[in-house]
Amino acid sequence: MTGSSVKAGARERSEFSFVSMLASDLSAGRIDLPSFPDVALRVRKALQDDDVSADTITRIVGAEPVLAGRLLQLANAAAVNVCSKRVTDLRAAVARAGFDLVRGSAVAFAMSQLTRAEALKGIREPLHGLWQRSALMAAMAGVLARRLTKVNSDAAALAGILHGVVKLYILVKTVEDPTLFSDTDACARIEQLWHANVAKALLENWDMAEDVVAAVHPHEDLEYAHEGGLI
């Protein structure tokens, strides 16, 4: 057996192992991304309680100035600030934006921070490129929603941010299995075969709004027919 055959066999075993693990995690609801900032995890955990108060969420978000500033921006955006009254305190911003936008903002913030995670420094460049593409998609989705539809432009932008979530998931996993993910063809196969299911599982695990999940889930299916919403 040649050296190339041995390497190919090792990659195939790694691919099978990864796909098996992925299927197991999907069925058990364990899909998540490592290295997420603590504030995003705390927001997500708090919002799993249907009775959580705006004060609790405000205290959690207030611990991260960048996220707090983003929520203040959102709360004063035209799509949310329908009464044209500016808010300057975080609790009022949380109350106005609503928990769905708070949840989405926390996830978007966490995704942006992955580019700085020490554990992921080996893939910092591709992570940064993916984040830039996601941010561009978010900007385009927000503008189109605002100008051409009645869809909430911030929700549309969030769907744009999250459209590449499976690429992000696979990229982060390269740190754990460099043997498999040195093979770009294997990565492409896994992404193509598993994108829809992994995206749906991830976003449902993060308790994203149904419209956002529905928009991201089939976004690469160019023949998908829909009846409105964010898609």
- In this structure, how is the largest beta sheet organized? none
Strand content: under 5%
The poorly predicted ranges are none
Average pLDDT reading:
79
Number of H/I helices? 12
Q: What percent of the residues sit in helical stretches (DSSP H or I)?
A: 55-70%
Structural category is: mainly alpha
Find the count of extended strands (DSSP E, 2+ residues).
0
Overall morphology? elongated
Radius of gyration: 19 Å
Through-space gap between termini: 50 Å
Short characterization:
The chain has helices at 3-28, 38-47, 54-61, 65-75, 90-97, 99-113, 124-148, 153-162, 165-173, 178-181, 184-205, 210-216.
Architecture overview:
The protein is mainly α and 231 residues long. The protein is built from 12 helices and no strands. The longest helix is centred in the first third of the chain and has 26 residues, at 3-28. The mean pLDDT is 79.
